[in-house]
């Protein structure tokens, strides 16, 4: 399948951050991939480009072996240089059209959204997918974002999906509360500590997918 088709089939995205992982990051990501993660986003806000490049090279190889998509958070040049499947942009990052001008054709561009206005802009910019949050309280965001709850945010995800843009719930999601996210209507989840900080990242990923009905 091409990247767009693989994205549409994806249900669980792992935000890979070394400081959050209970194990070495590569080991935790490999276990999560074995548990069913479809997409890995390397998210190292404070690391230098050299460190991010090295991590990207290793994680991309893991994803290729598992058939998962590999995305780099924020660093458009790193995504380009390492042949990533995509880049994910926050509201304070480079604009979607600018990122597309740097990336090769067919590389995915995702955008974090928190309200209806941000979602409208992302759709107008033709983002390939969006994150919608924060559904629960989280400490992994680089800036303060409102916590709106899954029921309040699910209509945003539904609007994105209706427009053909996959929408991932994000923010404080764990195996214990993933069922609430699914019950609200979300079809996809992005998770960080809920998997990486677990004793068994693979089992945590599988539990979240089970809550989604996969």
Structure write-up:
The protein has 214 residues and is of the alpha/beta class. The chain has one domain: TIM Barrel. The chain contains ten helices and eight strands. It has an eight-stranded parallel β-barrel, surrounded by seven helices. The chain starts with a helix and ends with a helix. The model has no long low-confidence stretch (mean pLDDT 95).
Provide a concise account of the structure shown:
The chain is of the alpha/beta class.
Task: Give the topology, please.
Layout lengths: L2 H7 L2 E5 L8 H10 L4 E4 L6 H18 L2 E5 L2 H6 L4 E4 L6 H7 L5 E6 L2 H9 L4 E5 L16 H13 L4 E4 L7 H7 L4 E3 L1 H4 L4 H11 L3
Parallel strand pairs: 1-2, 1-8, 2-3, 3-4, 4-5, 5-6, 6-7, 7-8
Please tag this protein with its features.
214 residues, alpha/beta, TIM Barrel, eight-stranded parallel beta barrel, 17% strand
CATH architecture: Alpha-Beta Barrel
Order of helices and strands: HEHEHEHEHEHEHEHEHH
Find the CATH superfamily: Aldolase class I
Unreliable runs: none
Could you name the CATH class?
Answer: Alpha Beta
**Alpha-carbon distance between the two ends:** 19 Å
Shape: globular
Helical percentage: 40-55%
The overall pLDDT, averaged over residues, is 95
Which strand-content bin applies to the residues? 15-25%
> What spatial order of strands do you see in the largest sheet?
1-2-3-4-5-6-7-8
